[in-house]
UniProtKB/TrEMBL annotation:
Coiled coil: none annotated. Keywords: ATP-binding, FAD, Fatty acid metabolism, Flavoprotein, Lipid metabolism, Nucleotide-binding, Oxidoreductase, Peroxisome. The gene is ACOX2. Gene3D superfamilies: Acyl-CoA dehydrogenase/oxidase, N-terminal domain, Butyryl-CoA Dehydrogenase, subunit A, domain 2, Butyryl-CoA Dehydrogenase, subunit A, domain 3. Belongs to the acyl-CoA oxidase family. This is Acyl-coenzyme A oxidase. GO terms for molecular function: 3alpha,7alpha,12alpha-trihydroxy-5beta-cholestanoyl-CoA 24-hydroxylase activity; acyl-CoA oxidase activity; ATP binding; FAD binding; fatty acid binding.
Length: 638
């Protein structure tokens, strides 16, 4: 069956041609794809720069990912180190600098397939927490790769086999008094011969689900002396006489995490979902299976409503979170400017939003990639589809940089505090002022079209977020008043606290998407299609969490039917633009590295050709050793 379909699909696939089933999808786009790409990039000039970077990287054979799916962990590591070293040369050759406009596109162009990712986190720690003197000393060394940095915060640090230095987060004690967690630069290996420094035990932790190109390690320090000036001291300092001096909040020492949580959303989390959507949607218009209408040819699987319901909400989420990321970046830039001026007022809000959104976006995008994988049936399970490695990689983002439950509880802690403050009439940060506006009304929607009004659905999301926060705050207070110890009471509320934190982020994501759409240009059909996606994102959230919206009668069962009707209508509308919407992400075939998702849609030809390259198609010693004797034995009996 598979072979038959393959031969069917190959007919007429001249070089450079596009599979007609995919080509036809592009002829009916309701908007200008190039304009949407430019919008996502932040302008046509940015698109030009990004494409130039991608072109320079992809045309260099050292950066090739062609054999990636056939490599062992060691081979991937070695290739990634080679790429990291070559990248330095390439940057020099191309005139790209750390502060230049090209820099932010390099990592995306490499598809993250390069060693020393934590070197960037090491550098970020020094630049946000180090004094000017420390920055002047360490950053040039790190930029030129004269040392290899890592980041050791979790108990069993993560320094592997490459790093020569690390930023260790450890408790600071002076004369027996603990001053809490502080960051220290520690040299762990000789720059001469890479041997471990005295007192250091370190190594690689072994095989993992993904990240074979990155070495993750363990680290033990025994009687290691760290010079006083190696404690990062932009905000906290130990003077030679042992006096401890701090400016502002002690929590500033956690700031690297905040910056990394926001930085990783784009490349590590959104990009995998956008790629997965591109692969699964292109494949879904090439793959024909079963008959939709009797007597007609087999239908494209994307024409099935259930397939649309798998993929299109993921596409809408990719756009929604793309705009959320812009919102977070803007908030971060503002907050960071204030912190540079030693004003820490925005820190709690920044922490709450970066933690909550890191958790919600990674959770949503990871689930989305898995849905895309499964939506491609058996071929999705093949590494050659590109989907399994996207999945195993993005899954880690739910854990690293703060496991998601922990992060949602950090957000909830902030929400409860703000709810209490708002209830007492005290001022609260802008993102939570809505908590003061507890309304007990009902959803005013009268028909399904009303649910395409952002005012209606934003208010519904707001209502749920306020209800979950206020009810949990009340439960917490009741427990404490009834004599339960504060920490026990907190633990008894954590499931609901997590729900409240998620609802808060979901509300902000929907509101931000609607506000973004409002500001978009109306020309070239962009605003219209983005409005459809925004509606779909919002209604999908209601449709899949009906209990939360029905719970206190804010939304009625009849209104839920209206939501369902509008939601399903939208699937059919967006279906028509599904391929142009993923084309606008502008991933090259090399960056997708997928036999299913290429621009030309010649799926079966690629699957067949790529399978030929697999080492599993070479004669295995297992034949000589085991199969041959077994089969020869049979032969003698026939
Ligand atoms: C850079 C460019 C490149 C990037 C792109 C590279 C790509 C690269 C690919 C990925 C590759 C993998 C990279 C993985 C790298 C790791 O995974 S590194 C390890 C990261 N580890 C974590 O994130 C740990 C998660 N846990 C937490 O964040 C916990 O909140 C903490 C910080 C451990 C504290 O926990 P705790 O003991 O409950 O808290 P405690 O000390 O009592 O403090 C709580 C107070 O601190 C506040 N607080 C906690 N955290 C913060 C914060 N961050 N800010 C402000 N306040 C805070 C709380 O709000 C609370 O305040 P109050 O309510 O008391 O006022
Ligand atoms: C690919 C990868 C790269 C990494 N790189 C680095 C690195 O470079 N440097 C570094 O320092 N670390 C790194 N880490 C470690 C990572 O940051 C931690 O794994 C992560 O912060 C979670 O901590 P943990 O593993 O101790 O999980 P745990 O804290 O043990 O969590 C296990 C479970 O317990 C639950 N749990 C724990 N505490 C609570 C609580 N208070 N309330 C409710 N539930 C709780 C969690 O929700 C989770 O379900 C990396 C991890 C991965 C996967």
């Amino acid at each position: 069956m598979a072979l038959l379909e393959a031969s069917k699909s190959w007919q007429g696939s001249a070089p450079g041609s596009v599979n007609p089933d995919l080509a036809s999808e592009r002829q009916t786009a309701s908007f200008c794809v190039e304009r949407l790409t430019a919008l996502l990039d932040g302008g046509a000039e940015q698109t030009r720069i990004r494409r130039a970077v991608v072109d320079a990287i992809e045309s260099d054979p050292v950066f090739s990912r062609e054999n990636q799916y056939f490599q062992t962990q060691n081979e991937r590591y070695e290739a990634a180190v080679r790429k990291a070293v070559h990248l330095q040369k390439k940057m020099h050759e191309m005139g790209w600098t750390e502060n230049g406009p090209e820099y932010k596109y390099i990592y995306r162009a490499l598809s993250g397939d390069v060693a020393f990712l934590l070197h960037r986190v090491f550098m970020r720690s020094i630049s946000v927490l180090g004094s000017d003197k420390q920055i002047a000393k360490w950053i040039p060394l790190a930029t030129q790769h004269k040392l290899i940095g890592s980041y050791a915060q979790t108990e069993l640090g993560h320094v592997g086999r490459s790093a020569t230095h690390t930023v260790v987060f450890a408790q600071l004690y002076i004369h027996g008094k603990c001053y809490g967690i502080h960051p220290f630069i520690v040299q762990i290996r000789s720059l001469q011969d890479h041997s471990l420094c005295p007192g250091i035990t370190a190594g690689d932790i072994g095989p993992k689900m993904n990240f074979e190109h990155i070495d993750n390690g363990y680290l033990l320090l025994r009687n290691v002396r760290v010079p006083r000036e190696n404690m990062l001291s932009k905000f906290c300092e130990v003077r030679p006489d042992g006096t401890y001096v701090r400016q502002g909040s002690q929590k500033i020492n956690y700031f690297t995490m905040t910056t990394v949580r926001i930085s990783l959303i784009s490349d590590e989390v959104l990009t995998p979902l956008m790629k997965a959507c591109t692969i699964a949607i292109r494949y879904s218009v090439v793959r024909r299976q079963s008959k939709l209408k009797p007597g007609e040819q087999e239908a494209k699987i994307l024409d099935y409503q259930t397939q649309q319901e798998k993929l299109l909400p993921q596409l809408a989420a990719a756009y929604a979170f793309y705009f959320t990321n812009d919102y977070l970046q803007e908030l971060f830039n503002r907050g960071y400017r204030e912190i540079q001026r030693k004003n820490f007022d925005m820190l709690p809000e920044l922490h709450a939003l970066s933690s909550g959104f890191k958790a919600v976006i990674t959770q949503h995008c990871t689930a989305g990639v898995e849905i895309c994988l499964r939506a491609c049936g058996g071929h999705g399970y093949s590494l050659l589809s590109g989907l399994p490695s996207l999945y195993t990689k993005i899954l880690a983002s739910c854990i690293y940089e703060g496991e998601n439950t922990i992060l949602l509880l950090q957000t909830a802690r902030f929400l409860i505090k703000c709810f209490m403050a708002a209830s007492a009439g005290q001022p609260v940060p802008p993102s939570v002022t809505y908590l003061a506006a507890v309304k007990h009304g009902k959803c005013p929607a009268k028909n399904k079209l009303d649910f395409l009004s952002p005012d209606i659905y934003i208010e519904a999301y707001q209502h749920v977020a306020v209800r979950l926060t206020s009810n949990t705050a009340a439960k917490l207070q009741d427990l404490i008043q009834s004599g339960v110890k504060k920490h026990d009471a907190w633990n008894q509320c954590t499931v609901q606290l997590v729900q409240a934190a998620k609802a808060h982020c979901h509300y902000i994501a929907v509101k931000n998407f609607a506000e973004t759409v409002e500001k978009l240009e109306t020309k070239a059909g962009i605003q219209k299609i983005m409005k459809h996606l925004c509606d779909l994102f919002a209604l999908h959230g209601i449709f899949s969490n009906t209990g939360a919206f029905l719970h206190d009668g804010y939304t009625s069962a009849a209104q839920m039917d209206m939501v369902t009707a509008s939601y399903l209508d939208l699937l059919a509308v967006i279906r028509k633009d599904a391929v142009p919407l993923v084309d606008a992400f502008d991933f090259t075939d090399k960056s997708l590295n997928s036999a299913l998702g290429s621009y030309d849609g010649h799926v079966y030809q690629r699957l067949y050709e790529w399978a030929q390259r697999s080492p599993t198609n070479q004669m295995s010693p297992a034949y000589e050793r085991y199969l041959k004797p077994l089969l020869h034995n049979t032969l003698s009996k026939l």
